[in-house]
Structure formats: structure tokens, C-alpha cells
Amino acid sequence: MCGIAGFYGEGSGENIRSMADALRHRGPDADGFFNDGPLFLGHRRLSIVDLECGGQPMRDPASGTVIVYNGELYNHMELREELEAGGERFTTSHSDTETVLRAYLKWGCSCFERFNGMFALSIYDPVRRELWLARDRFGEKPLFYTRNAHGFAFASEIVALARWPYFSDSIDMANLQRFFGWGYLPAGRTLHPNCWGLPPASWLCLNLTDGSLRTGRYWQFTLTPDESLRDRDEPKLVEELRHLLVQAVRRRLLSDVPLGIFLSGGIDSSSILAAATRCLPKDHISAFSIGFTEPSFDESGNAREMAEALGTKHYVSMLTADDMLTSVSDILGQMSEPLGDASLIPTQHLAAFAKERVTVALSGDGGDELFAGYDPFAALGPAAFYRRVVPEGMHVLLRKGVGCLPCSDRNMSLDFKLKRVLRGLSYPKAMQLPVWMSPLEPAELSLFFAHPLTAEEIYEDALTLWEANGNADDVSQALCFFTRFYLTDDILVKVDRACMMVSLESRAVFLDNDIVAFCQRLPNRFKFRNGTRKYLLRKALQGWLPERILNLRKKGFGIPLNSWLRRMSAPSAPDGMDAESLARYVGAHRARHGDYRLFLWALHALSAMRGKVC
Prior knowledge:
This protein has a six-stranded antiparallel β-sheet with strand order 2-3-1-9-8-10. A six-stranded antiparallel β-sheet has the order 4-5-6-7-11-12, covered by helices on one side. It has a five-stranded parallel β-sheet with strand order 15-14-13-16-17, sandwiched between helices. The longest helix has 27 residues, at 474-500. The protein is built from 26 helices and 19 strands. Among the domains are: 2-217, 4-Layer Sandwich (Glutamine Phosphoribosylpyrophosphate, subunit 1, domain 1), CATH 3.60.20; 231-372 and 494-550, 3-Layer(aba) Sandwich (Rossmann fold). The protein is globular.
């Protein structure tokens, strides 16, 4: 894994070195630079594949084309064989960077749709006088860019982009409000004007002759269910899914450095460990888990049972609340964009623990989104019934009554779920899911901002997706929402930043192109059936996993956030937010008169970056 940066326009070699140095945590092993007039490219390398010859920037001698690349292509050897058969000549033995470069030279920007992996890249084409950026299908690897009168710049993280002298670090107040409405920034938005994240599955091309810029998408996640599939096809689908899981794991086991597996004890990570035992000898497989001393948050016993059942090596680190609490400021302070997901803290601890023994770790990210694994899927039916039978006035009374329930500190407690569901049901269905998960609901923004956005403005991206899906059923709408927003803009951001803080590469097995294509054509009744989430995945894992593990309720990677926030110093209000309203929310939370954990944590995420670019 690596970090990339570059700019075209005003600046110097000192500037590109400073930008690359800000990405040292993403690539501690080596750096490299390229300069052609006003164009500067920089690279930081974490050596994973082709340790001897995979250095960057990599240049094609014949055309002068140069690439800086961050990622892993799991199908690069197949692409290499195809390119060699077509006349391309390689100088490295198995560098996927060279495969990407030669794929561009052969197929142009259509090469991106052929890639099965995770990547963020920039290619300088001196013949066409073009600078290209591109990003993988789900945005596993980050890429940000900015453009103004001084030129164009890009980097893997905003903290590096801010080292370009002409970057504007002012705050976009509309996007600050969106952050509190989502808990993250969706659809390529950032907190800074004229700064964007390149969307997943997208490319950007800057013409260096006339300065024109064009963008495009080479893929989009959509559901295309094959309604010809019937229940009698279930055994065939089970075998196909098993094959795809093993194939995806085998692809991700290719590495020239030590490799392991994140094991939470849940179905997704356990399925990856089980698939790995069909690819490697069991004693060659290392699984890593963390446990919590608070029982309602701890899954380490399930992880231990899973590893013992499969006979793999297993390493567990037990953490107390104090262990994690003392690390909060340091971890949040390493983020260069805000993220209101508190599971960043245990994810970073897990990554640091795994890094003691390995450099690459396989993860189960994407399984919940593709197979309908989250709690809200089970709430969709009751919520639809509630909307039909409960009048608005009765809803208001019920919400007030539930709001008076004592606030529990337990993980995903009943009072927390009820309050969240009733909050979402206060808004139109198209906004229901993001409101369920929001730090602040739109109605609260007027308490904190002088010029609050409307709910439609806060959730315009979700509304656009809802309308694009037309008459899709509630499960389909939820699958698209979680995959297009929550997965790409929260989960994958969290995992990438947490792992890169300690220079560990993570590989998401479920985001393999072939597994995703399988899920796209799979009718919803094979994902969510009679209240059972991940229906077909559970069927495929019968005989692979202990029955008790298959029947466990999902916990998530939670932490005792409510109790933490009562012990942490109060966050200060950023410029433009009302400090008195914040003080009231802090006081109510500490007195257990309200549950404002997500909002207060989001503020802490901002406060930790105070004084640096965010």
C-alpha cells in the first residue's frame, strides 16, 4: 500500500516532497519523485508485491508515460498474460504497477473497468498531454483533489493536499452541517471549498494544454436481480457462493510479505477464515482479534471458538475501556477529514495489534451491505407497517414517551434502537435511513447554525439515489443506500485510515468483482428472508462454521461510548456553531436526560483536528 501526491501549476520540488512526507505512514519503505516542467508527482511506498522492482514513479521508456499508484490488483497476472499475448513487453517479474501502466497504454481509460482490486492512481501521458486520476469501484483507496487559479493538485489524504501552498483550508459551512446530518461526508464532499474526493469507480482527466477537465464513471453499483432464480436453485447458488468466496480469498492471499486475517467472531470474518483454510495449510493462517472487558461489547470468545474449530493460529488482545480512551485524542488527531464513526478506535487498535506480526490483513467489510446484514433491514417491515397505521399526532406522542426512557450504556440497547427508529420515522421514507444514523437530525440544526440547511439539502444525495431507484422495494433501496454511501464513505474510510496509521494493508474479500456481480443478480429473498439477514450466506457457511456462530446476533464493533463521553472533557463548538446549545446537549447527556452520543462524538472528531486541516 502506498500514498500518492502531485500537482500541475505553481509549486516546487520542495512542495512535492513535503506533500509526500505527509503520507509517510501510508508508505514508510521508500519514496520517489518525478518532475516535467510544472508537473510534479510524488510517491510513498509500503512494499507488498515485487519488493525489488516495484518502485515508483514508474515510467515507460518508449512513450514517457508515468504512473504513481496506490493499491493491489488481484487479477493483474491474468491481465499481464493477455497484454503479453497482445505484444506488450514487461520489465518486471510480477509488479501490478507495471500491469496497470501497460493496461493504460494498451486500452486507454477503458482499462479501469477491467481491474479487480483496490486502487487510486495518477497517470501522466506526455504524448496526449493529459493527467489522469482514477479510483477503484468502491473507493477502498482514497484520492482527493483541488483546483484553483494556481493549478491542480491531488493526494491520497487531505493532510498531504494541504501541504501544497495554494490549498484553501477554509470551512464550507454547508458541508459542516452535512457532516452532522450523516456522521460522515457523502459523495466526494469535503469540509473545504474547491476540494473534492474523487468518487468511487470514477476517473478524471486534466488536459495540460488547454486546462480543460473532464470526469466520468466506468462502473456503478446497481441491483439487477435475476428473477428467473427460484428456491429450487438454492443448492446451486450455495455452491457458487462458496466457490466465489474461496476464489476471492485465494486472490487476496498473494503477497511477498506476512499476511493475516481480521477475526471478529461474526459471520463475515469467520467465513473468510474458513475459506482461507481451503487455500492454505491451517498452521500457515494467522487470525487477529481484540476483546473488550465490557461483556456487551466483547466478541473475542466467539472469535476464539471459531479459530479453534478451524485449527488456525489465533492472537487476541484484550482491551479495557481505559486502554482505548487514552488513545482517542491521538487516533482522532491523525485523521485529516472528520469521521463520526467511533469504531475507528477499536479498528485502529486491531490494526496496530496485527501489524506486530503481519503487513497485510484480510477483512470482512462489505458483507453486511451486499447481503443485508444490518439491523435496519429487520426494522424495514415493522417501520412500513407503523407508517400505515400510526397517525402523525400519535407518532409525536410516542416519540416523546420513548425519549423519556432511561439511557442505557449497553451496546445497541433497546432504548437506543427505539429512539433511532422513531427519529427516522419522523421524516419521509427517502430520508429514513440516514436520519436513523445521524448525529443530528435536520430539525436540530437550527439550534446550532444561524443558516441551517433544510432536510432536503442535507440529504440531497440520498434523495437522488432514492429517485434513481424508482419503484424499488424497501430492501433494495436500503441495499443501495448502505452500499453507495455507508460502505464507501464511512466503513472503507475508517478501515483505510485506521490501518494506514500503522502502515498495514487491508483487503476486503467481499468486494471482489465476482462476488459483487453475484450479489447484484441475486434476488432479495436470498439475502433477507422471513426476518433472517444474510440468508444465502448463512446457508453457504453451514458445515464450514459452528452452528452456534451462524446463529449469533450481530453486535458490530462497538465501544462504551456513552460512558466515555461522560468522562471526556466537553468538546468546544467550531466557528459558526452555537456554544450555548452545545453546552445544553453536553449537560443533558451527562445527566442522562438525553442520548447525544453520536453528536458529541462527531464534535470530538472535529475538535481533535482543531488547528490542523480537517
